[in-house]
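So, can you check this one?
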Amino acid sequence: MKLTVLTTFGVLISGFAYFVLGQGYWALAFLAVFTLVTRFTKDYSNLGMATQALFVFCGISIGINEVGINYPYSLVIILTGLICLIFFEGPEWGLFRLGFGKTHLFFKLSMALAVLFSLVICGYVYWNYGNIDNPVPLEWPIDAILILGLGFALFMAIMNEMIFRSFLFQRIEAAAGSGVANLLQAMFFGFMWYKVPVTNGVPGILLGGTFGFALGYLAQKSGSIYLSMFVHFLVIFILFIELTLLGKL
């Protein structure tokens, strides 16, 4: 119980400080102290491994933001750093849901989630479009925009699912169990949506957190991140098409 409470405290405080308050260096310092205290303590080593992964995430984010590389392109470098961490510590790759698992049993659920979140997120964007800075390059030809949308949706799906529903989920799960891990990775993911141009502020946290929780549940139940990647891809691509239509009409 104590380990679960400490894990929850560490994840939520760091995520809120970094993404919502914009205090990246304070979040990094907090994670550094938290990791040093727990990482090499026998009873809390799993917690230390979880906050260590968050430290890598936040540390790389701050470093590359300083040189002008921002979200979502920063995810490539963050993922590379997490992979290096995994190789350095040497856990089994089977823990990260990179196999196909039981994907065939949960395909219908994945389609239902794709439809549900496409409707919810696109509905929110439609009703709040006047307050949204459309990131789609509307001056491009429509075929070029669609190709860009396909690539962007695929990029976002792979990067986010590898980072949140694979690496961070596994690290938190080892410390606090699968149920708490899914909730915490979803909340951390939701905090990240606080400053996403299309869905930001408190609604962004709620949308991102709910979306992340559903994707985590799908990955956990199927034993694979490929269905969550599939859902993520569809939702982002449909959102991209909506933004294109709203901007062109």
